Amino acid sequence: MTDRLSMVVSEGTFDKAMMPLILGTTAASMGSEVNVFYTFFGTKLLTKGVKPKLPGMMRFFTGMIVGRMKKMGIPDYEGMMKQAMELGVNFYACSTTMGLMGVKEADLRPGVKVLGAAAFLKMAQESNVSLFIG
């Protein structure tokens, strides 16, 4: 059986945006199949040109964190998404949530697939590791 990591992302803040990318690129570079399913507020993270911010009052410090990441050689959100896609990480937008959040398929970045919850749950059931990034 192939090692498989499945993650669910339900929030759209910078911290929640970066966690599945760091874990996903690491797992993919180790040879695992990685599937990341975005639902509710996380769905917006899959749209073209999105620039996630830290939550609440911390949003004003997003640039500072991105600067620190750059000094450490960690790519920003866009760079991490590109790297993850190049490594074969699979990104899925929840079909039901897209309608709820007003996201159209044309709004999604290239390479993102639309998937229903039942199909993702089947993937997750067949995974070695499943994570929820709230």
Structure summarized in a few sentences:
This protein has 134 residues and is of the alpha/beta class. The protein has helices at 14-29, 62-71, 77-86, 95-101, 117-125; strands at 4-9, 33-38, 90-94, 113-115, 129-133.
What is the CATH superfamily? DsrEFH-like
Query: What number of structural domains do the residues give?
Result: 1
CATH architecture: 3-Layer(aba) Sandwich
Low-pLDDT stretches are none
Number of helices: 5
Percent helix, as a range, is 25-40%
Element-by-element helix/strand order: EHEHHEHEHE
DSSP strand tally: 5
Shape, please? globular
Q: Whole-number average pLDDT?
A: 95
Which structural class should the secondary elements be placed in?
Answer: alpha/beta
Largest beta sheet: strand ordering: 4-3-2-1-5
CATH class designation: Alpha Beta
Query: What is the distance, rounded to the nearest whole angstrom, between the alpha carbons of the first and last residues?
Result: 28 Å
Instruction: Let me know the largest β-sheet.
Output: 5 strands, parallel
Note the beta-strand portion: 15-25%
CATH topology: Hypothetical Protein Ychn, Chain: A
Rg measurement, Å: 14 Å
